[in-house]
Amino acid sequence: LKNVKVLGSEVFSGNRYAESILIWAGPTTLTSGFIIPSKTFKGCNRLETLTLGESSGPRVITHIKSSACEGCTKLSTVTVNQPATGGALTEIGQKAFKLCTSLTNIDLKVNKVSTEAFHQCTSLTTLRLRQVTQLFRACIGCHALTAVTITGGGDGVDIKDGAFRDLTGPGNQRTTYGLKNVKVLGSEVFSGNRYAKIIEVWV
Question: Which of 55-59, 163-167, 185-189 has the lowest mean pLDDT?
Answer without folding.
Answer: 55-59
